[in-house]
User: Fold these one by one.
Assistant:
Number 1:
Amino acid sequence: MIVDLSTASVQVQADWEPIADATYNLHQPTQEQFDKLKTRLPESVNMEWEQALALFNPKPVHPLKNYRQTDFEVFLPPSTANVGDIWELDPKGILPFLRQFHPGATTEITIRSHRTPKSDGAKACLRAISSNYAEIVFRIHAQFVLDASGIRLLPAQFAGRLVLNRKEGAVVEFSLFLPPRNSNVDVNAFRAADMAFIPRMELSALLSTPVREIAWETSITEEEARKKLATAFYKFAKIEWSPIEDVVELAKVTNRPIHALVLFGALDDESC
């Protein structure tokens, strides 16, 4: 066990900005577009236009929420861990955090009603440790079912960071956020899908004591930890990609063909 946490409370703030951009603007149809869609798909579009506009841009159900320090134990390893180790996180313990955003949060990802068990769930990595502190980074794949008809938002991923004071059994820093890369969420509704951009979707702990610079005894870089998490979800993330210019030169030298793939969207997350 990295640390035994106390039962003191931690207040967490939720920020969720509306969709700022999308490929097809599925989240913001005009009245005319929505009426045509409703006529064409009456069994799938069982709401009014104003309801649809509000549905696609929800606000956090709990802008502020108090957690016990022990609630953060879900991010800890099940046994002794070394720096760089990866472990699974219990979805049941993760969901209360995600449901601060929306009650429809689930870690079971479905695409057209079919579950994708290879990419859902949550994992964590011990990035750094000292006699007084420990830092864990984590990655969560989840989706939000916005209503009974199955309208869903599928974020690319949630990245997170948890810093613990091992001696005091206290949370020093906590954040869980949607990386602000363009096209970082899929909108699935009315038998259609759209790639969209949410500028900010984040949980952050409101702590009175700021984190001072910590002298870690053993650590890896955050980039290395994130890479380990990515490869834990996707085996192909271990591939070392080369610039196309280098590949062309190598093909000439080895007299071998180039096998090229053209991607629409990201390869190593759930945004597309």
Number 2:
Amino acid sequence: MDSNVNRKHKDSVFSTLFSDPEILRELYSAIEGVDVPRDAIVKINTLSDVLFMGQLNDVSFTINDQLVVLIEHQSTINNNVPVRLLMYIAHVYEKILERDKLYQKKQIIIPTPEFFILYNGIEPYPDHAVLKLSTAFKSVNNLKLYQDSLPLELIVHVYNINQGRNSEILKKCKTLENYSIFIEKIREYGKDLPLEKSVGAAVKYCIENNILKSFLRNHGSEVINMLNDDITVDELVAIRSKEAWEDGREEERKYFLELLDQGLSADEIRRQLSCTHTANS
């Protein structure tokens, strides 16, 4: 059977950290530059029981049943995210709407969707960018005399949350700022230590400096396992494939990206690369 279908999806550090309605209220307020009222009802509806394309969405929630917000965290920008989010939002609407009402004559009113990506990868990226579903559409100019407007669009706002970027957003959401510091510390220690040890050192530093202190104390044993996939796969793309390219190892680079496209986990990719290296040595 397809491993993409059978493999259990692990919660990420990001989705676990932002699984509190009050933190999501603070996060949305910071991103949009608004103050969400304290009495506004924030309901989390993240797809925790639907395995789709080998992974779940990171965070989704409604505010007063007026807005439905989907937030994805990425350390490499995938330009196919608008297509994925189109499929995710359909699943979310299935989850929050009463199916019977879809067939009644009276029009139902649904929460307005908003889509965000929070980026903290190592590759240079602007503070803010916009991804659109329409860029994936095939051209139909040869089949239509003119184009009044697109029948379907989905707009995703991407914000760079690395240290030194979008400081106003980070300042308004302390949890997001602390998360950014934590990831930065892992990278800093990772220059001299393997991943597991660099995560451990970052956890120790953050606890000692009151950065995500409660979260890291409660989830410390899980964080290393979570980050194995959170960081390793995405940053292997940015680091390993780049190294292979610079060293002229084009076949190795192509093979690595093929494994990634198959939806394999970090451990599975490492195992495949190790077997290939052993066979070639």
Number 3:
Amino acid sequence: MANDSVLWGVDTMNAPWGLQSRLKLVALACHFFNANKTAESHAAIGKSLSAEGTPGPLTVLDFLKYLEINKTFSKTPNAIRVAEIVERMASAGLLVCTGRSSGSIAGLADHYLYMPTVWEARRALFRLVPALGPEYLFWLCAPGLVHITGRNEKGNAVAGTGLVLDPHHVLTCRHVVSDMKVDGTQTIQGREYAVNDDSLYMHTDIDVAVMRVNGPPLSPLEGVLFQAPVLARTVYTLGYPKLPGLREASATMQQGAVTNEAVTSLAGEKLFLYSAISRPGNSGGPVMSDDGYMVGLSIVDATGRYDSDDAFAPHYAGIPAQVVVGAVEDFGLGIELQFEQYE
């Protein structure tokens, strides 16, 4: 193996890594440590098999050699940083540590395996969210967010948020499209699509709507699964809130937590509460968990009215994922949403 100066010297990637470098490393680690390709990974670095001829799990040092041989990065990655990312992958359940060495410096001699499953394949790139964090989650979701525009009854420009569900449908809240006259042309993923009243499907009992668009197929978020909200789980609201003073609509992301996973409004709606700020314009946007599941749709704040002497303690309400999935099925549009149950 290369000497220490190559592992963490001046010619290695010592500065903080951007998202794309971390994403590249995680994807390569999944490939290199793949339990079904262990023999292939041994051959790639010229490492001999065991006396029995069976390939055993490989180490972080082996992975570093693989990166060096394949010239994946313009500079050799800093070994300590690679070990930290591999350990984070193990903590997130992406890798399995099969053995720790007592003489391992920073875990470089520890052995790992990546065990691909059918369940994991369904999640596509969203399976990497726990290892790469909220910046990666936003990067994945942003292309699927839709800025739905229109005019209210006073003629003022208003907007809400939607999410691309499949090549021809956008998910949003019913009140987003019912409280405005939706613009006849909507810009989605850089293209313009014609929309009219016949394009809007609004649920009669649940604040959920679907907008159908005709034209070039949209690109849905591959691998996004729906899952019921869980108390205290970290969540993020994503959408297009009203931002006065800016020239263009900007997607934003706000962190919070689920504060109650099941409440009922005075109107009988099944909702959940969270603390991530949901501003006007966020309605119809997804509420995502920190492990990359869609747990609901943003609707309104639930602060209610407070007396002047009361502390201001806002909560925000959303439609839980299981209710959203059921509402979309009611439309009978052939949209298939993948909902994951807890065992």
Number 4:
Amino acid sequence: MSYSDLYLEKLPNSNTCNRARSDAILFGVPFDSTHSFRPGTRFAPNTIRELFYNIETVIPEFSIDIDQMIIDDLGNIKHTVNSSMMIKMVNKITDELIKANKPIFILGGEHLITLGSYTAFENNIGYIVFDAHYDLRNEYGDTKFNHATYLRRIIEKNNTSKNILHVGARAYSSEELEFKTRHKIMTITDKDIRNNDGPKLIKDFCTTFNKIYLSIDLDILDPSYAPGVGNPEALGITSRDLYEMILALHSNKILCTDIVELCPIFDTGSTAAIAAKLLSCILAMSQHS
């Protein structure tokens, strides 16, 4: 029995298919047990799917109709409130899916899920994360494994930070700032984005790392664009800013993308719509690159 069969639960009317024929693989991680402010990101995977399957499918930037793509939707991982178990399940599933050599898409859930998925890949691929927070705390909420510490755990596990590009942080602790500086983590600042330098700086990073793992925390956006997130931070970037930076990755091979921290309970529908649009765009890019 595969780990996908063991740990994933199929959804009614899900688009499961022959994996060898698929263009992309998708699964959800409805987990938010370490939330520190707004609970409810566990409801996000199905919410994103609902928007994704009900928006227009032609992506004009690439002249691709994603309705013609075959997406192998594997459903969601089995329910757990245990962080270690969630990380194990996500890691095992991702490791198994890598062998199919298809772009992988993971719908969170809170950002801790990335500790399971990203570490399944070889640690020489580029990691680009869009996030209002650094998530570099050593401990938060009396645990070292939560959404505010996951990136520090990744760096410790992989014993390197040279392949990480952090985009858009505007809220952090002095502890995180010191860790970022000491480990020389590459960043694109909120000011860089306001100066319209974001796309160019992303392209510069990708001259070193052609293969990319992409992680999108929706709280990178200003709450006026994305009110439905677990930890909203004022004075963020626009949805157009984010979209243009994602488009800058079009010539790179994105091995895996996760979209995290949508909190539908607090959403007007706009955050989920942005998540679905980003998913559509990156799917189209996977066929174009």
